[in-house]
Q: What sequence folds into this?
């Protein structure tokens, strides 16, 4: 084999390995940025109740224009959070986004088993 073909073969093998690492990294990053944005939405939009108060199910605003001002907003985090909120709304048959729905999404993101790289 010529030296050029050996180098070409090694680069091709490296691309395959990098692809697996990038998929692993993307799954972890998507989870982390989504949970940061969801927690920021909860902090800024859901009223904090003091001890003894009843939990009030507040509506939350997840329009892109609103969340664009948030510190943890990115296009990817917004898309991932919106998708999860839509799935949760569909599951509980809700017509609008509520703090209950947001809490369920945050809990699911917290308990998601993230992949390990082997």
A:
């Amino acid at each position: 084999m010529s030296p050029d073909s050996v180098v070409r073969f090694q680069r091709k093998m490296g691309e395959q390995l990098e692809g697996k690492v990038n998929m692993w990294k993307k799954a972890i990053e998507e989870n982390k940025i989504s949970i940061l944005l969801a927690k920021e939405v909860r902090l800024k939009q859901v009223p904090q109740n003091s001890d003894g108060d009843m939990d009030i199910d507040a509506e939350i605003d997840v329009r892109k224009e609103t969340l664009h001002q948030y510190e943890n907003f990115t296009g990817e985090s917004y898309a991932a959070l919106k998708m999860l909120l839509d799935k949760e709304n569909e599951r509980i048959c809700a017509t609008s986004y509520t703090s209950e729905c947001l809490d369920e999404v945050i809990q699911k993101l917290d308990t998601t088993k993230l992949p390990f790289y082997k």
About this structure: The two ends are 31 Å apart (CA to CA). The chain has a mean pLDDT of 83. The CA atoms of residues 31 and 40 lie 14 Å apart. Residues 3-47+56-111 form one domain.
